[in-house]
Design goal:
The protein is built from seven helices and no strands. The relative contact order is 0.13. The chain starts with a helix and ends with a helix. The chain is mostly helical.
Length: about 170
């Protein structure tokens, strides 16, 4: 049974992550993008803070890192999610999910640019190039009508992926 736990966990993670894009699309028909972001961040923040207080992981001396926490919360949750919400009514949920696959590609490139200890090899470069080609092909900007793939939605997801990749 233990050998199936990673497969089950991967399936559940795919279900939760994949359904996220559908819920964004549904919510964007009812409430504004800022309201969606606020609700998501609030209901993500509450259990994390409760758990941190429960295990006594938060101390007054941590307040000196408040600026860092603020920047990471903006990059890692709030801003990128706003861009994803803006894209959700413009793109199919499946296309959004695939385009969000550019997050690790941006992370790789930014890590190489800003972290001098990060060494790359030809296999890594090949993987990043192939990943970008895949994301571009899914975005489908080369069809007869350029706006059929809704370039605005693709740009929103790409900017959001760049932002969360930078975190």
């Amino acid at each position: 049974m233990n050998k199936y736990i990673p497969i089950i966990a991967f399936g559940i993670l795919g279900l939760v992550w994949g359904s996220n894009f559908i819920y964004m699309k549904w919510a964007s028909e009812i409430i504004s993008p800022l309201q969606i972001v606020f609700i998501r961040v609030l209901f993500g923040f509450i259990p994390v803070v409760c758990y941190a207080f429960f295990v006594k992981a938060i101390k007054l001396e941590h307040l000196k890192y408040s600026f860092h926490f603020l920047v990471m919360s903006l990059l890692g949750t709030t801003i990128y999610y706003y861009f994803y919400i803006k894209a959700s009514p413009l793109l199919l949920s499946g296309v959004m999910g695939v385009l969000s696959g550019s997050i690790p590609l941006f992370t790789f490139i930014l890590a190489y640019i800003f972290i001098k200890d990060e060494k790359i090899n030809s296999t890594m470069v090949f993987g990043v190039i192939m990943g970008f080609i895949g994301v571009v092909l899914i975005a489908n900007p080369f069809n007869q009508n350029l706006f059929q793939s809704n370039i605005e939605g693709v740009i929103y997801v790409t900017v959001g992926s760049l932002i969360v990749g930078s975190s």
